[in-house]
Amino acid sequence: MIHVITATNRHLYHEAIEQHFKIRHNVFVDERGWKTLERSDGREIDQYDNDDTVYLLAMEGDRVVGGHRLYPTTKPTMISEVFPHLAAVSSCPSAPDIWEWSRYFIVPERRDGDLNLRLMAAVQEFCLDEGISQVSAVFEMWWLPRFQQAGFVIKPLGIPALVENAWTIAALIDVSDSTFRAVSQKVGQRSVLKRCGPQRRHVDHSKRLQQEHLERSLLS
Predict the structure, then answer these.
(1) What is the pTM of this model?
(2) Whole-number percent of the chain with pLDDT over 70
(3) Which Pfam family is an annotated match for this chain, by its short name (predicted)?
(4) Would you say 56 and 120 are in contact if contact means Cβ atoms under 8 Å apart?
């Protein structure tokens, strides 16, 4: 299952989070050559790993085998601080119901199975549960056909550019019931998420609900 890890239940996952930082270093620094992320302690961690971060980690027993993270765009993000040039056409996303999606990884020995699709289903399921309508992401162009084949609707924010010697794009990805159903059917699971311990809502719906109530009142 894909475990949902937030500030409220992170105390249950200390070892898993530390394990995933080391796997990220193995994948992004050692394997993919992103030397700007290299750290002497062998942990790939940055300013977007904090109490606002949500981790979706695939676990087999106590072992982390894949995952990714989500971060609110109402705060400074990778796109706004590191890659604003990739969003030169549509500007950097910033809204309560848009979250940034990053650090997607799978350990080498698990890349041949359906874990990739389950991780894609996980981001759609979590966002649907939380009322998040879109995720923003920076990814290499070779990801584009994979996401589209899974049914993701992608809206580029700008023109691709070279990042770490790879053509890279920033984009918005729609969250929808139809996309989640399409991906979850491919993996044969109606739900891929597991939630343990205390949970909290990550999007404040009160203003949206007030606006919807006002609109209904005006129409009645």
Answers:
(1) 0.91
(2) 92
(3) Autoind_synth
(4) no
